[in-house]
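Following up on my earlier thread - several people asked me to post the actual chain instead of describing it. Fair enough. Here it is, all 275 residues.
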Amino acid sequence: MVEEKNNEKKETLKGLAAELEKKITEDKSKAKAPAGVPSEGKKVKVEKVEEVEKFESEEDVKISAKDVKKEVKDIKENVDGKKETLIPLEDYIKCAVHLGTKVITPHMKKYVYKRRADGLAVINTALIDERLREAIDFLGKYDTDKIYLVCKREAGWEAVKLFSEITGIRVFTKKYPSGITTNLELEDFFEAELTVICDPWIDKNALFDTARLKKPVLSLCDTNNYTTHVTKLIPCNNKSKKSIGCILYILAREYAKIKGLEFNASLEDFTGPLE
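Reply from S.P.:
Thanks for posting it. Predicted structure:
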């Protein structure tokens, strides 16, 4: 009888020890997680976004000349199409800058004008242009050596390279070395005042590093993105070569004007042929 009671006590103590160990592990995980990173109980949202990123195509959306005319007419009639834009409205449409994904997050809902028949969200071009102007003013406050740009999405690599050649801004494409701006012990450590990213999900390492330093982030954001830690955003299609190229063309051109840099590139140098 005594032996049975002892065994019961041992099992109870083991159970309590296991629960305590689990609680300590969970607390440590929460303490280590950077601000804005979902905890264990909030994994669903992150996994949902990851699935979207896996299946969103990086191919450029084919837009015929007929479709361009139709969409330009629709935007001029139903959106603020009378305002002068940074580039002709037709070029925004040709580059599919205004076409989002089939997923619209609560963070990006206010930038969406409507849905197309195929389910794709259509971003308000007036807001794209407005946010671009704000981004240009913001970018212009920083010197070249205080900015770096990250774009892990292959569709943007050519445009990013040209952007760097024109502006002199440091860029990372295939791989962003996590901790390069936060870990003083790294050989290639450097300090920056502004981080530019092409997607808050794909480029999340750079986003979280910058958040730890409490520095500003300028980001291209599609309709399926969450914008936590993003200081300034440009609502746009950040999946396709033409769209990323178009946005970087405008940023490079306007930054060059502000800083007095030479700029001889055309839109198609950044996007490829638009015909």
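Confidence is low (pLDDT under 50) at residues 26-55. That should answer part of your original question.
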